[in-house]
Automatic annotation (TrEMBL):
Hydrolase among keywords: no
Location(s) in or outside the cell: Membrane
Taxonomic source organism: Acyrthosiphon pisum
Designated name of the protein: Receptor ligand binding region domain-containing protein
InterPro entries in alphabetical order: ANF_lig-bd_rcpt, Peripla_BP_I
Length: 263
């Protein structure tokens, strides 16, 4: 999907730049998910071809080597992934909000809904870093409890303990891949009644099917970066869907795409 979105964006850019005489060429390479050495080799090959910008990869294990090379060569490196180590002032342009910015947004929401005390549920070290950013500027002087999810796929033990504690306000910070299952198990243990309130940290929550929870009475608040009802957004998604290949790349590979600009 990311590659399709990228190529569709290039097509739109090409159409807008016809009169300028600038030609955009796309070079794509498939690299192993965890092999930084081979990724470095492919990046150097693309640089030898004269690329002036790098997109991806989406994997956190190989992205740092790409970023390091781009910083050294002083060419833009555009990312779309959550990066807890994102540094301002580098050659990286990350379409995902900076961790501190996202933490500020969550704090603003907590203040707006007037939570006095609440429990933060986090998944792993990455989400723990996000929690740390929130705790540096706590939105309340009241207690903030912190609980980590088990490795899964069964999260009921800790969810039931939170329910038994009487907690009704929960900030949930977990990956989108397990978000639906965590919410479903929270409902199963009685943690999603009319008295419960959730704030979801994932920016992809708006793509989740919440029909299973609509009669529970639970207040679920989330954030998003797009306007799904915007006509331009819908046209873009429709174009991506039309161009989407029926054969998706294996999930063990990622695609670092680049743009080469020829004047």
């Amino acid at each position: 999907m990311l590659e399709t979105a990228f190529k569709s964006s290039v097509d739109v850019a090409k159409a807008k730049m016809i009169a300028s005489g600038v030609e955009l060429d796309v070079i794509s390479k498939i690299v192993p998910l965890y092999d930084s050495f081979e990724t470095q080799h492919h990046v150097c090959e693309m640089l030898a071809e004269g690329v002036t910008g790098m997109f991806g990869p989406s994997a956190g294990d190989t992205a740092p080597i790409v970023q390091s090379i781009c910083d050294y060569k002083e060419i833009p490196h555009i990312q779309t992934r959550w990066d807890i180590n994102q540094k301002r002032g580098s050659c990286q342009i990350n379409l995902y909000p900076h961790p501190s910015t996202l933490a500020e947004a969550l704090i603003d929401i907590i203040i707006a809904v007037d939570w006095k005390s609440f429990t933060i549920i986090y998944e792993n070290n990455e989400s723990l870093m996000q929690i740390t950013n929130i705790l540096k500027s706590p939105p309340t002087n009241h207690p903030i409890r912190i609980r980590q999810l088990s490795p899964g796929p069964n999260y009921r033990k800790e969810l039931r303990e939170i329910k038994d504690s009487g907690e009704t306000k929960i900030l949930l910070d977990c990956s989108f891949g397990i978000l639906s299952e965590v919410l479903l198990q929270a409902q199963q243990v009685g943690l999603m009644g009319s008295e419960h309130n959730f704030i979801i940290a994932s920016l992809d929550m708006h793509t989740l099917d919440l029909d299973a929870f609509k009669y529970s009475g639970t207040n679920i608040t989330g954030m998003r970066l797009v306007k799904p009802l915007d006509s331009e957004f819908q046209d873009t998604v429709s174009q991506w869907t039309d161009n989407l290949s029926p054969l998706e790349p294996d999930d063990k590979t990622v695609l670092p795409e680049t743009i080469q600009v020829r004047m």
